[in-house]
Amino acid sequence: FRVLDALAPGRIDLGLGRAPGSDGRTAFALNPAANERPEHFPADVRDLIAWVHGEPLVERHPFAAVKAFPMTGTAPEVWILGSSDYGAQVAALFGLPYCYAWFFSDGAGGERAIKLYKQQYRPSARHPEPRSGLCVFALAADTMEEAQYHYTSRVLSRYVDAIMIRAARLGLDGGYASGDPAPGFGASSLLAHSWQ
Q: pLDDT tens across 16-74, in order?
């Protein structure tokens, strides 16, 4: 992100969040220790802010000698991305902008998270006032018919993912990974269980 900022000074944002950005299996393959570290998120944010701005890490930090390059007169703007009260509280603690992932839950909890963020906000040198945003799902097309076509595939994808997650919880996991066929999920085995 420092390289991007050097190429486009003052135009790069760095969004930090706890969500893996993928399905659970893929996220685990990329970072097997992620579930052991959620309580370290605030410290990770603190360290990343220091690296991005060329500031020293806390005293006796094991990576104090690590520097982020290139060192220029600007730095990416750090935002906290979240879909819960927790992300809002981390953003407020560090005096960072906060963006709520409205599309994760169709907005459920968004108003509460933004309100909590503003109530608990601690002004920082870079951000004396709270700054919040919403990340929404938006679709544009030339016609309503085309937009509906693309939207339907999103709805179906979410429905299939929900079924696969529920099936895995019931022990019907047949090796499904995002984008792969689901060999262990025949219609009869799925319909044989209560999906309530």
A: 988 776 666 777 776 777 667 777 889 999 999 999 999 999 999 999 999 889 988 89
- Whether residue 122 contacts residue 92, with contact meaning beta carbons closer than 8 Å, is answered with yes
Amino acid at 109: G
Give the pTM. Answer: 0.73
